[in-house]
Amino acid sequence: MSKRALIIILVISVAINLAAILTFGYHWWEARSYRREITSRGIDRRRDLRGSLLRHRLNLTEEQIDAINAVHEEMRSKMLSLRGKLFTKREELIALLGETEPNKARADSLIKEIASLQAEVEARVFENLYQMRDILTPEQQKQFLQLYERRLHPEGMRPPPPEELPGQRMQDRGRPERGYRGNR
Q: How many CA within 13 A on the CB side of residue 47?
C-alpha cells in the first residue's frame, strides 16, 4: 500500500476516533448535568431583565424592570420547593421501574402527586405572567402576548389535530379533507 493511502486512512481513523470521544464526552456531561442538584439548573439564579431581549422588544422602563424582577424573585422562591418536590417524586417513580415487581398502586399514587405538582407549577406560572402583564402598558401587553404565543407555537409547529372519535369517519365531521369527494 502506498504511503499516501496510509496517511489518508490514518487521518480518517483519527477523525472517527475523535468524533467518538467527543460524542461520549458530550453524553457523559449531559448525564452528569442531569444528576446535579435541581438548583444548579438555573432556577436559583436571579434573572435580571436589564440586558434581556424582552426588555428591548417591549421597550421596558427601569421601573417596569424593577417591578418585573421583583415578581420573578417572588416566583423563584415559590418554585424552588415545587420543582424540588417534582424532581423527588419523579426519581421515586423511576426507582419503581428498577424493582422486579413494581408496586402499581404506589406508581399510580406518585403519578397523581406529580400531576398535582405540575398543575400547581402551571398555576404559579400563570399567576407570574398575570402579574407581569399588569406591569406592562396595553401596547406592551399585546407584544408580550405575541412573544409568548410564538414561544408556545414556534414557526412550523402546529397544535395537534383534534382526535377523531371512534367510529367517526372524515365525511361525518362536517368538513371533508382537502381533495375528498365522498362516495359516488
A: 20
Inter-residue contact 95 to 70 (CB < 8 Å): no
Round to whole Å and give the CA distance between 143 and 57. Answer: 8
> In 3D, which of 37, 33, 29 has the Cα closest to residue 87?
37
What one-letter code names the amino acid at 68? I
Q: CA–CA separation, 33 vs 48, rounded Å?
A: 24
**CATH code given to domain 44-152:** 1.20.120.1490
Q: Are 144 and 133 in contact (CB under 8 A)?
A: yes
Helix or strand (DSSP H, E) at 98:
none
Single-letter amino acid, residue 91: E
DSSP state of 73: H
pLDDT digits (tens, 9 = 90+) for 43-78: 444 456 666 777 778 888 889 888 888 888 888 888
118: Cβ–Cβ under 8 A, 6 or more apart, which residues?
Answer: 86
Ordered by start, the domain boundaries in the chain are: 9-41, 44-152
Distance (Å, rounded) from C-alpha 55 to C-alpha 129? 15
pLDDT of 91 reads: 92
Where is 128: in which H helix or E strand? helix 104-135
